[in-house]
Specification:
- Strands 1-2-3-4 form a four-stranded antiparallel sheet, with no helix packed on it.
- The chain is built from eleven helices and four strands.
- By secondary structure, the chain is mainly alpha-helical.
- This is Peroxisomal membrane 22 kDa (Mpv17/PMP22) family protein.
- It holds the Pfam family Mpv17_PMP22.
- It comes from Medicago truncatula (Barrel medic).
- It is a multi-pass membrane protein.
């Protein structure tokens, strides 16, 4: 199809595409449309804008081989841009079809926004990481639970010959208790350290679940810190503390029990809570100032919170339980208390971290 190049002069409207008089390849010269013809067709308002923008450019006017005047008016105007590499190539910078729409009308620009494929990719990566993290946590719980259950049930494995399942289940609790008492005689400090380490790990897990985390999406580092404090400090210190308490109050009267409870819930609770918060802060790599501020903020609230739980438990601790067995009873109650301790400690740490991040963002925005 032949085309005629013409330069649109300034202050003129879009040139019309005249209807060919014959089927020959000759094309009549374009004429200007009168303003009255534009007013009858609302689409020409947008065409006029396009024509004004490209009035100084060169056009290819391509005749439409149709007898319908509407088809001729809906012709294709392509801006010719001189491209490097050859003359006469159609430019890619501006292509406008005059069919009632502007050059950019109907197109949605997504510049400045992340692509949908990027969002999907990030979401998939997060799902994979969450699934992997959950699988690791579930494996830890499964391995630890299987090991503990196996040790408890196989305590009499050397004597199982001829035993029934009923006999194994019946004698397992009694023989486990005898094995625990034997461990207290041979290595009491290490036995109590193991018990406290397990209790503090499980207590922190319960605390995280109580805070709203799913069962297998717990923070392993946080649980490890709590268990390490229980293993390294609580078991050993409690062993020596209960012996010290008996030497400090060697009396046998009924009144000595409330005295021991009062001493426990003032001096010993203040010391142990301070040790717990300080060591956990050190394991989190907190600065000394942050550790001191956290300790100062939680000291009295935690001390008074203990008065709602421990006095009733310690009436049994100092009134009924023998000295060597006290830590086991206390660690059973510690499952509740560690939940409170861990919750208080990590709430303060998370609140401080969030406030620091907000301050950092505000400082960055001001700069």
């Amino acid at each position: 199809m032949a085309s005629v190049h013409s330069t649109v002069p300034h202050h003129t409207f879009l040139p019309s595409i005249s209807k060919p008089k014959s089927k020959s390849k000759s094309i009549s010269k374009p004429q200007n449309f009168p303003a009255s013809r534009f007013s009858t067709n609302p689409n020409f308002t947008k065409r006029a804008v396009v024509a004004t923008k490209v009035s100084t450019e060169e056009f290819d006017v391509i005749a439409v081989q149709s007898n319908d005047i509407t088809d001729q008016q809906e012709g294709l105007i392509v801006s010719r841009v001189e491209m490097e590499g050859g003359d006469g190539e159609l430019g890619t910078t501006m292509t406008t079809q005059v069919n009632g729409f502007g050059a950019n009308e109907g197109l949605l620009s997504l510049e400045g926004f992340p692509s949908s494929s990027g969002l999907v990719g990030n979401e998939n990566e997060e799902n994979v990481e969450k699934l992997l993290d959950r699988s690791i946590n579930a494996s830890i719980v499964l391995v630890a639970g299987t090991f503990a259950l196996t040790k408890l049930l196989t305590i009499d494995s050397d004597y199982w010959h001829g035993w029934t399942i009923y006999e194994i289940v019946r004698y397992a609790p009694l023989h486990n208790w005898l094995a625990y008492e034997e461990a207290l005689k041979t290595n009491p400090v290490f036995a109590k350290m193991v018990i406290s380490g397990v209790v503090y790990s499980v207590g922190d897990w319960i605390a995280q679940c109580f805070e709203g985390k799913p069962l297998f999406e717990f923070d392993r580092a946080r649980m490890f810190r709590s268990g390490l404090v229980g293993f390294a400090l609580h078991g050993s210190l409690s062993h020596y503390y209960y012996q010290f308490c008996e030497e400090l109050f060697p009396y046998k009267g009924w009144w000595v029990v409330p005295v021991k409870v009062a001493f426990d819930q003032t001096a010993w609770s203040a010391v142990w809570n301070s040790i717990y918060y300080t060591v956990v802060g050190i394991l989190r790599f907190d600065s000394p100032i942050n550790i001191f501020n956290e300790l100062k903020a939680t000291f009295f609230p935690m001390l008074t919170a203990g008065w709602k739980l421990w006095p009733f438990a310690h009436l049994i601790t100092y009134g009924v339980i023998p000295v060597e067995q006290r830590l086991l009873w206390v660690d059973m109650i510690e499952l509740i208390w560690v939940t409170i301790l861990s919750t208080y400690s990590n709430e303060k740490s998370e609140a401080r971290s969030s406030s620091e991040s907000i301050e950092a963002k505000s400082a960055t925005s001001e700069e």
